[in-house]
Amino acid sequence: MSFLTEGLAGLGIAGIIGLGVFSLLMSGFFSGCETGYMSVSRVRLRTLPDADRPLVRRLQLQLRRIEDPILTCLIGTNLFNVFFTAMVTAVLAERFGARGQWLAMGLVSVLVILFGEILPKVLYREFPEKMTLASAPAISVAMGILWPVRWLLRGYTALWRRFLPATGSDRDDLNRKSLAALLLTNTVPSDNDQRFAQALDRFLELAGHPLSENMRRLDSLVTVGPDVTVEECLATASESGFSRLPVTREDGRDLQGYVLVRDLLFLPREEHGLVLPRKFIRSFLLVDERMSPYELFEELRSQNRQLAVVVDGSGNPRGMITLEDLIETVVGSIQDEFDPPAERE
């Protein structure tokens, strides 16, 4: 500690504050990057307008071996946290004696938790693609600098794997053969379990289905025009039974957004004759027609959406697909209380 104190004394007050701010910012940078790399969507990266630029390709390459940037972030966060803690403790202990150590503990805890953990993690979680793309070059440099430490940690992990039994996380990804082998180790499904067997088979075959097979084409959608009134919109929803209505141009081709009918239910009666307010028109989630259904599941889940518009390579809309459409592909038709009862033979 005396060596650190002597070194800091030569920096002066401005130098000490600058070094402390730098180490705290670097701690937050690595902490935020860890969250960003875990939150970034590979699907959204592929559908960016400039997806072919070198920066995007670099990030995609890092994501293929995500353990390298994640391990780099963990090492960087701990190194700068330790340095920041030691620096603040040395400065305050030199100034206030034993009481300074308690002051350092409280100050470091607040600063590291707030600026080194919470704020950067929230920022990278809210804007994972934008923030992680901006951070990818710096992470590449850090990966090169810290590769000896990563090599030692990998060797340490490999050593423990030789002595500890393998766990479920060490298995290969579940595929058709391994899933079949797993099912054969259990009781063979009875006749009453045919629905499960059929659903399982449809799920395994889903990967080969293009989105065009599951989407609803534009000419089959129940839509409303941009000048529709609230009353007309509610009437269309009542007649069609749909709770989400796409808003199009007069020719019915250009999808401008969609309206969620529940947003209109509690409007005052006197507003029902007015044109649908723009604030109730929600934007569509656009997805590439080249996506697999599994990638679309991931995108809908990460965006917390229920429907998306499928577009071609030029960005032209081809149709609309909902989460319910994907689920029904696997489990069959889903009936709810608003669906008409099936006609009896």
What does the model show?
The protein has 345 residues and is an alpha+beta fold. The chain has 3 domains: 162 residues, no CATH class; 31 residues, no CATH class; 123 residues, CBS-domain, CATH 3.10.580. It has a 4-stranded mixed beta sheet with strand order 1-7-6-5. The longest helix has 30 residues. About 2% of the residues have low confidence.
Unreliably modeled segments: 168-174
The general outline is: elongated
Largest sheet: 4 strands, mixed
Instruction: Please give the number of β-strands.
Output: 7
Percent strand equals 5-15%
The CA-CA distance between the termini, in Å, is 87 Å
SSE order: HHHHHHHHHHEHEEEEHEEH
The percent of residues in helical segments reads: 55-70%
- CA radius of gyration is 28 Å
Give the total of domains. 3
Nearest-integer average pLDDT: 78
Question: What strand order characterises the main sheet?
Answer: 1-7-6-5
Give the helix/strand class. Answer: alpha+beta
Q: What is the number of helical segments per DSSP (H or I, 4+ residues)?
A: 13
Task: Walk me through the topology.
Elements: H1 2-9, H2 12-39, H3 42-46, H4 54-64, H5 67-96, H6 98-126, H7 128-145, H8 147-163, H9 176-184, H10 194-205, E1 216-217, H11 230-240, E2 244-248, E3 255-260, E4 281-282, E5 286-288, H12 293-303, E6 307-311, E7 317-322, H13 323-331
Parallel strand pairs: 5-6
Antiparallel strand pairs: 1-7, 2-3, 3-4, 6-7
Helix pairs in contact: 1-5, 2-5, 2-6, 2-7, 4-7, 5-6, 5-7, 6-7
